[in-house]
Write a structure and sequence with these properties.
This protein is α/β, with parallel strands linked by helices and 444 residues long. The protein has 4 domains: 99 residues, no CATH class; 42 residues, no CATH class; 139 residues, no CATH class; 113 residues, Rossmann fold. It is built from 22 helices and 7 strands. The strands form 2 sheets. A 4-stranded parallel β-sheet has the order 2-1-3-4, with helices on both faces. Helix 1 packs antiparallel against helix 5, helix 2 packs antiparallel against helix 3 and helix 15 runs antiparallel to helix 16.
Length: 444
């Protein structure tokens, strides 16, 4: 049978069989790593996406045989460490994804390797701390603690201490922590009254906001801007009664048991909100992706997970659907000029199109230049001492495009990617989230 390269069919993702004991068998894993790495070596289309592939290809090219059999197995794990599960290789580059008979799913193979590493107790304390976003956020949300944490983050001496103790790079951006969190700013009283929404297409016209750890503790303005925009469009917004981290940081660590624990807190209440007629929105693409894709693939037989998957939206996706059905206000008061817009990887792999650009370009006298390259931030990768310089190299093409655009504003759907660009620019300018820009356009 001839091997057919490429396909016009949509590439399916297979469920992750993470509860099967063989999933954690290292010898079986190494055999599959060898199979896939050899396929990647023969293709090399993904060399420009991240540092996982150059690490592999350089090791092969520098080996005695110039083939995979000449590479030390320790390099296999270096490749794993450089993968941050952005999914871009699967979605945009690889011609051997399912339904191809070679059945290559590089990100899920890396996830398996990370899970094996975690199961073996090889997770560093630093990585456990960095991925415990809700725990760290709740502690840092205490007024005295947040003041101290922010002071350390802004101190050169404090950052050097962090670099020595936790190997958090002194040049990396660390977010502010707010004791007056988004949930405290919005309050739960908005949840007490029953709300009626106006349907538009599949949207039901009233949303429950999953604040996210980052949106709650680090940039509560994201949620405030979202609420202002949605309520301007006559869409009632309430908060979820409580929430845990979506699980993406623990997924990237391979700690799938922690992902399950977060899921057991979040999914029942989100599913109950869906049953009560609410749609779900979250302002951070990684969190939306977690509920849309990762949890359904980890728990394929869970009906509640599927229910949430079908009713959670990126905020601009939600507004774009309503615009398509004539339910979006376009009473913009202010033009935005030129916007250099970085399209976040975890938004791109949702396959919803550029809804952010679509909506911003509704604003009169506004032009949006989209940049579809990785910023290099990718969760905790860019703050780690051993990876920060590499992350900045990965993001350099994005920074160059922003500089060349000489735009009035630059932004990213991922707020952390926006700050990664800010570091690269080093000109004192600040990113403005697309939600902030849309609110500015409305003049609200």
């Amino acid at each position: 049978m001839s091997v057919r390269e490429g396909s016009l069919e949509a590439p399916p993702r297979h469920p992750v069989d993470w509860q099967n004991p063989e999933f954690y068998d290292e010898s079986s894993l190494l055999k599959e790593l060898e199979r896939v790495y050899d396929i990647c070596h023969g293709c090399r289309r993904c060399f420009s996406l991240c540092n996982a592939f150059p690490t592999l290809f350089d090791a092969i090219d520098e080996s005695d045989t110039m083939e995979l059999d000449g590479v030390d197995k320790r390099v296999y794990w270096e490749v794993v460490d450089h993968c941050y599960l952005c999914d871009m290789c699967f979605m945009t580059k690889c011609p051997y994804v399912p339904p191809h008979e070679w059945n290559v799913d590089f990100p899920h193979l890396m996830l398996r390797a990370k899970a094996v590493k975690h199961k073996q107790g090889r997770t560093r304390v630093r990585d456990t701390i960095l991925s415990s976003t809700d725990v760290v956020g709740s502690l840092a949300g205490i007024p005295v603690v947040s003041t101290l944490v922010n002071a350390v983050n802004h101190s050169r001496v404090g950052r050097k201490v962090l670099e020595e103790l936790l190997e958090v790079d002194a040049e990396a951006h660390l977010p502010e922590y707010h004791s007056r969190t988004l949930r405290r700013r919005l309050g739960t009283e908005r949840n007490s009254a029953a709300a009626a929404g106006t349907e538009a297409g599949p949207t039901r016209g009233k949303v429950a906001l999953f604040a996210t750890c980052y949106g709650n503790y680090n940039e509560p303005e994201l949620g405030e801007d979202l609420v202002a925009i949605f309520e301007h469009n006559d869409i009632p917004v309430r908060l979820t009664d409580s929430e845990r981290c979506c699980g993406m940081p623990k997924l990237e660590l391979g700690d799938l048991e922690a992902v399950q624990k977060a899921k057991e807190v979040n999914i029942p209440q989100l599913a109950a909100l869906v049953d009560a007629g609410w749609d779900i929105v979250a302002p951070v693409p990684s969190c939306v992706l977690m509920f849309k894709q990762e949890l359904p693939l980890l728990f394929p037989d869970d009906a509640q997970v599927a229910k949430v998957r079908d009713h959670i939206y990126d905020p601009f996706e939600y507004l774009a659907i309503r615009h398509k059905h004539g339910a979006l206000r376009t009473d913009f008061r202010n033009s935005l000029g030129t916007i250099a817009y970085h399209v976040a990887c975890h938004l791109r792999v949702q396959n919803i199109g550029m809804k952010t650009r679509e909506l911003l370009q509704l604003v009169p006298d506004t032009r949006v230049e989209a940049i579809e390259r990785c910023s290099g931030h990718d969760g905790t990768y860019a703050v780690k001492k051993e990876f920060h310089a590499i992350s900045m190299k990965i993001g350099k093409p994005v920074v160059n495009r922003v500089q060349k655009a000489a735009a009035d504003h630059y932004c990213s759907d991922c707020p952390m990617a926006g700050h990664q660009i800010e570091i690269g620019l080093a000109d004192g300018s600040r990113p403005e989230h697309p939600l902030k820009l849309l609110r500015m356009a409305y003049g609200i």
